[in-house]
Design goal:
The chain is an all-alpha fold and 346 residues long. The protein has 13 helices and no strands.
């Protein structure tokens, strides 16, 4: 057997066992690496200020935990507590209100009565209570799983920031591509992920502020529910409705018809349609133009927008990072093949 074949077999065997060993952590490691790529400019800033790569990585990791994971963890914990304290009498009261509202709707909703009247018999309070308890248990499990994953991501993120440059240089030497192609791949992926990361943060903050300011006029905690709406907005299609729909129903329950309709229409028109559909691509474009230099490769803002949506739909929460990364990687590989083809033709 030729020595190179033997080395190849050893490498394939080692690669299999490495995958087997680290498979439970691959997603967390991938997300951490992509986040490190996205925020490499933050790492560089702190490293220049402190003169220590370790200190810079620690500050970056702490900042990520505070700005990203703590609010979301608080959101999940709050929802879990609320559902765990939900009793059957509360559900019964809501059921009586909904039945009464459907049986005797306002004059402007009379046309809906024939369509939803038959649904009254399908309402089962015990089943709703059981589902609520089950949902509370599921969210509790989700919260515990999220905290675990968040901790792993932060740990791997720290090591990615601390050892990132060394790892990248090693991969450049190992991978069978030219230095120029490796630099192109690293630069374009870093550029796109930076735009994606900051776009997600700015867009979530923007939508959260819009909802928080509006809801505060009705006596609710605008800061808390603004944060909650910002994270809920990351969920495709139904994210915003998870926030404004309960407020609308509660205002109807209190008899505040104007408030209920205002919350619903404001959330649908101002946030879901105008902010999320039309302003979000503009935010991505603006960050794309401001963050990247003229000679940097820029990915079209609509491509980034749809990559985020596709990633969320396919992978769930972490898809907002994975979707654009996969898209950017694929398009960069196409550019490398195009350059090689052009060189061969020449």
């Amino acid at each position: 057997m030729k020595p190179q074949y033997f080395v190849a077999i050893l490498f394939a065997t080692a690669l299999y066992w490495m995958y087997f060993l680290y498979a439970p952590f691959l997603l967390s490691m991938t997300i951490a690496a992509l986040l490190a790529i996205s925020t490499s400019n933050i790492q560089d800033f702190f490293e220049n200020k402190t003169g220590s790569k370790f200190t810079a990585a620690f500050i970056s990791s702490a900042l990520l935990a505070v700005l990203f994971f703590v609010p979301l963890g608080y959101f999940l914990a709050t929802i879990t507590i609320k559902l765990n304290t939900l009793d059957q009498m509360t559900i019964k009261g809501m059921e009586v209100f909904i039945r009464g509202f459907i049986e005797n709707p306002p004059a402007y909703l009379e046309f809906l009565k024939p369509y939803i009247e038959g649904k009254l018999n399908d309402i089962d309070v015990k089943a709703i209570a059981s589902d609520a308890i089950s949902l509370a248990g599921n969210i509790t499990a989700l919260s515990a799983g999220f905290i675990k994953n968040a901790f792993l991501v932060i740990v791997f993120y720290f090591f990615a920031q601390y050892n990132g440059a060394t790892i990248v240089e090693f991969l450049k030497r190992v991978v069978q591509v030219s230095v120029e192609e490796a630099d192109t791949l690293a630069k374009e992926l870093s550029s796109v992920m930076s735009v994606v990361f900051y776009s997600i943060i700015v867009n979530a903050m923007f939508q959260g502020i819009l909802f928080g300011v509006a809801i505060s006029f009705f006596g609710y905690d605008g800061i808390l529910f603004g944060i909650m709406y910002g994270f809920a907005s990351l969920i495709p299609i139904v994210g915003g409705a998870l926030m404004w729909l309960p407020f609308m129903m509660y205002e109807f329950y209190l008899g505040n018809v104007f408030n209920a309709f205002f919350i619903a229409l404001y959330s649908i028109i101002m946030i879901s349609i105008i902010a999320d559909t039309f302003i979000k691509p503009i935010i991505i474009k603006e960050i794309n133009n401001r963050l990247l230099e003229e000679d940097d490769a820029k990915l079209n803002e609509l491509v980034i927008f749809f990559a985020i949506i596709a990633g969320l739909a396919t992978f769930g929460f972490w898809g907002m990072i994975l979707g654009p990364a996969i898209t950017a990687f694929f398009l960069t590989i196409l550019k490398i093949f195009e350059a090689r083809t052009a060189d061969c033709a020449a």
